[in-house]
Sequence to fold (243 residues):
Amino acid sequence: MTTQSITLPRPVSVVMPVCNEAEVIESTIDEWARDVFAHLPDGSEFIIDEAASTDGTVEILARLSEKYSFLRVHNRADRDGFANAARRLYESARCPLVFFTDSDGQYVAAEFWKLAPHAAEFDLVHGAKIGRQDTLARRVASGIFNVIARVMFGIRYADINSAFRIVKRDVVVRLLQSTHCMPTLINAELLLRTKMAGYSVKQIDVRHRPRLFGASRSLPAWGFLRESYRAYRGLWDLKRELK
Fold:
């Protein structure tokens, strides 16, 4: 399916958290501009939440915001975590459709067009990574997390914390008000709350490629175990709340 065969009647807010991605951010945004924004309806926007980068990312984004009129960059003076950045991005989106994605270049921008045709019919279209190009520890932890979530909530979705999804703005803003159980995995909690609230969800498999520059930001062993525990505990807390 080509972009020329897809019609999106409503504009889209593409939102992206960014921190210290100087090696890849320009190529990532250029890719989105070429493969996605060139074909979006008028009024679409690209919003970036930049978190006190120290590697030159700020200067690159300033230059890119002059190059692309649709690009809005919100620079932060401090870092308050991925979940807070994601929450701000969802809340600041002005278009009726919101597309969330990462900034490290591992998602393929053109895969947007696999999700876009379903945006009118479904409240949330979830892009699940296939051939995930992450470290073994992250793949194992994610696999366990997804199995537990499927059993606990009776769902069939894979990769529920994937940062590649299109959602109706009114739905995500409404659900954000009650999202608090999984602070480090806000996208996973949003997907579960969307489904449990009776909204429609569609899963689409999307490609995932190796990181071309820099290293994946992994936690020390103790920090990784702590965050894994918090994720599993968050599932239990969410289950109890919804029950």
The beta strands are 12-18, 45-51, 71-76, 97-101, 124-130, 164-168, 201-207. The radius of gyration is 17 Å.
